[in-house]
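User: Structure tokens for this complex, please. No commentary.
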Amino acid sequence: MNSHRIPYAGILVTLFGAAQILLLVSLLALPFSGGLAQTRYVTTTVKLDHRFSWPSQNFHSDAASVEFSGLYAQLKVTGDQFDPPEVRSLVRRAAIANMAIEYLAMFAISHLLWRFCRNIQKAQVFTPRNLDLVRLIGATLVIVAIIQPIVRYWTDQQVADYVGQHASLGDTPVAAFINRSWISFFAGINIGEFVTGLVMLLIAQVFRQGLRLKQEVDLTV
Amino acid sequence: MPIRLNLDRMLLERRMTLTELAERVDLTLANLSILKTNKARAIRFSTLEALCRELNCQPADLLEYVDEPASGTSAIPSARR
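Assistant:
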């Protein structure tokens, strides 16, 4: 039996254990806090196409604060406590949806890493369980990298619909200028997260080889 | 596994128990059981040397090649020199 201690594994177990508790509490508190501080200044961005001139025309809107920024005439709708309730709840729902996905993903990954480090601490490195954990971590990262932009695109479009109906540029509703291009969806994919997930899946294959070699060694007398 | 270790036969001939052999060759009982039940994937020369020394026999006395067809019929006895 291999009883060699793995250094620093205990520290990582404690860190990931604390992280998952904090994330779980944050996730459960999300509907109540709604990231209260966040909704004051979190923004949902909808893109306007090239016909939208910047920034000379008059802009009328029900939202209490609408600002223009960027070279692409991005219209930002900011949730604020002085907003009409419709805008505030819309932005709040968008923020909660996006934050919930993020917290859930981080909780899942920290939980899987906590279990992985606990096994390492017991000097159980190349085991079928650890192989499954590494695969799960990789799959989670890949899936989250794809789901997050979908959720963000959906929430952005909801805000775009609202702004389109309630904001006008002179006599023209803003809806006429909103660009619902799919390019914004693909631009939202977190490439780093996606690639890290693929790398973890590759490392799982390495683990599989390691497991096979260990089994060979274990049965060599 | 086509290669078999006839440890139980040699133990019987030498009137030795598995526990006694384990102590003599400095192997755990668990590992020796793996050998005895033919679950081992490989054997080190040092282990084979220790077994032959303690059982006072040749490697050919311990190791046997058994041709096992798919239908699982009986083994072909090895030719002794």
